Automatic annotation (TrEMBL):
It comes from Paracoccus shanxieyensis. Keywords: ATP-binding, Nucleotide-binding. The keyword Nucleotide-binding applies. The keyword Nucleotide-binding applies. Belongs to the ABC transporter superfamily. This is ATP-binding cassette domain-containing protein.
Amino acid sequence: MAAHLRLADLRHDLGCETLFSIAALDVPPGQFTVLTGPSGSGKTTLLHLLAGLLQPKAGSIRWDDADLARLPEAARDRWRRRRAGLVFQDFHLIPELSPVDNVLVPAWLGAFRAGRHRARAQELLARFGVPERARVAVLSRGEQQRVALARALLMQPAVIFADEPTASLDSASGATVGHVLLALARDEGRSVIAASHDPALIALADRRLHLMRGQPVEVA
Ligand SMILES: Nc1ncnc2c1ncn2[C@@H]1O[C@H](COP(=O)(O)OP(=O)(O)OP(=O)(O)O)[C@@H](O)[C@H]1O
């Protein structure tokens, strides 16, 4: 359940400007990596490239043997369903469904029997302190953020991408989420890559990559 990321000669353009030009980047499994950088520096775009939601202009994005830069969209979607869990900045929850049914969406999409995953979905929601409600629409933004995180973890993915996972949380909930992300990497050998402006989350990470002028710079 581990995945090793290797980027080579990655280039991604926005119109006629180059947003990224990354000669090489190696992210072994078992690390909690945080992407930092000013607003607009490309953190979300890089997460989307690493998750195969976008294709780069050039270069390779290898997760073990799968080069997402070369795979057609359907194969990238398949890779993501099997290997990745995503927490988007705007959560992408289904407002009319309950929290637990939202968490079960990856099981439905993967054509796995959701009944078998219900207990895990409930356990994840309890771990993150999300109240049981009939509809996600009535939850606070912070509660919705934790539902999105539980959904990302349901299928025990090798890779977790999280865009600003603590942005809507108070410091106590943010610390819980941060320690869960750290444990997923350190104790379970998963790859966790988050984008964040949150100093507490950034301080927890194993590795900090600061995006500056299209380059990820290692920060101690
Ligand atoms: N679909 C798009 N079309 C055109 N430009 C885009 C698109 N998506 C992002 N951009 C531009 O790419 C740049 C990087 O955006 P991105 O959202 O990746 O930055 P970010 O570092 O995540 O910012 P923030 O911290 O504010 O979330 C910005 O200049 C943004 O305007």
